[in-house]
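STRUCTURE:
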């Protein structure tokens, strides 16, 4: 028995569409992988630069602290070290609270992207039910 007329054409067209879609997917995936590798390299560079900046800033803070201690040693004596330690402790507490607030607000989890993905999921799920 022969297939109905035009079914070979439909099957061939379907195979062609699937083949082209697979090729397009492969190209997009390759592009995404290349971009991810470039983003990873850029992230590593920024991370190393940030660490270097933190080290340089720490050395600057140490030098300025030593300068303040030398300048104020005569009038305040050893109290200047305690004063600086308290100032640095207060700064640490403030920075820690700010970091905890950012975490609690959920600002580290890509909230807008996650909201868009939830909307996409909901839209696709409601269409499947119909």
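SEQUENCE:
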């Amino acid at each position: 028995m022969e297939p109905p007329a035009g079914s070979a054409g439909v099957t061939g067209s379907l195979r062609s569409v699937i083949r082209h879609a697979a090729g397009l997917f492969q190209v997009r995936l390759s592009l995404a992988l290349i971009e991810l590798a470039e983003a990873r390299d850029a992230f590593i560079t920024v991370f190393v630069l940030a660490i270097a900046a933190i080290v340089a800033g720490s050395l600057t803070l140490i030098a300025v602290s030593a300068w303040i201690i030398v300048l104020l040693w005569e009038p305040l004596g050893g109290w200047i070290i305690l004063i600086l330690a308290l100032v640095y402790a207060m700064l640490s507490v403030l920075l820690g609270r700010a970091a905890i607030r950012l975490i609690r607000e959920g600002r580290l989890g890509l909230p807008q992207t996650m909201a868009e993905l939830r909307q996409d999921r909901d839209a696709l799920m409601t269409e499947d039910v119909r």
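REMARK: DSSP finds three helices and no strands in the chain.
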